[in-house]
């Protein structure tokens, strides 16, 4: 966090606390001419969080049918008509059973046999659904939904998960009844060391206890390079279209370009230089098994060939013919087999490379 940001944040907190204190800082002239107390309407528009005990929830109501209408108009394009996903986001609904609603524990989360974890499998409180939809949806226009529309959308989602019936009308008065039927309502625990309010006997860090994990930092034989162990296979990247086009243009999240174009560019090798291409030809066709660049192996080293043909105007033509036809006697009794399987252009490239010094690059 930058010093500028810290300073700005500190200033904002000072102003906020001054406002909550009833504007006394301005009354005594301590910050004369700086800012003003927030109005009730401004505080009301800002203070929209809904807590698990439903504090902060504003009066309103919405039926399943009303929620479905809003869903189809503003939500289905990203989440599918029934919250099953629409090639953009992972499913919101699915994976829960009537037994899960009875117990408050999603069995497939415990067993780990769910092919796809949906949001309703993991979320423990109705307030989480209400609060997130209210402050962040729809993706293209956050906070544009009316209070009753949010009630209706939550009712529709709960009905899709068979938590409430099709004729249910969700209100601020009966939302606790829906909470009592959430499939994963008992699946979240705060009685652990990482939760500030946990008792010291459980290692609560806010009460003088210790965290519920023990480990020793490894400071020897540390890895110098970390490799990602799990990647989406290249052949599957285009299964849902180009992910880069499926994220909003603001915020930290950016989808990977899965159009296939980037993969094709990455897969295409960089063009080789003439020397590198000729060296590859020599290696691929077994030339280097008999000829060294600076030393004899079975046949002469290429440096010897260069020395023998130095100054001869027709050296290239002679060597092209010898490589193509093969022969023996010039460099000893061991014959060089004919290389007629090579294209004329490849043979000429090899010969030019040899006469230029057989450089690798």
Report on this structure.
The chain has 361 residues and is mostly helical. Among the domains are: 3-46, no CATH class; 61-179, Cytochrome c-like domain (Cytochrome Bc1 Complex, Chain D, domain 2); 274-355, Orthogonal Bundle (Cytochrome Bc1 Complex, Chain D, domain 2). The protein contains 16 helices and 2 strands. It has helices at residues 3-20, 24-27, 40-46, 64-74, 76-79, 98-103, 107-111, 119-122, 126-136, 147-160, 175-179, 261-267, 274-284, 302-309, 315-325, 344-355; strands at 61-63, 169-171. It has a two-stranded antiparallel sheet with strand order 1-2. The two termini are 47 Å apart.
What is the alpha-carbon Rg in Å?
36 Å
Mean pLDDT: 81
Q: Uncertain spans, ≥5 residues at pLDDT below 50?
A: 1-27
Quick one: overall form? Answer: elongated
CATH architecture annotation name of the domain at 61-179:
Orthogonal Bundle
Specify the structural class. mainly alpha
The CATH topology of the domain at 61-179 turns out to be: Cytochrome Bc1 Complex, Chain D, domain 2
Percent helix: 25-40%
- End-to-end span in angstroms? 47 Å
User: How many E-type strands?
Assistant: 2
CATH superfamily of the domain at 61-179: Cytochrome c-like domain
Text of the CATH class of the domain at 61-179:
Mainly Alpha
Sequence of secondary-structure elements: HHHEHHHHHHHEHHHHHH
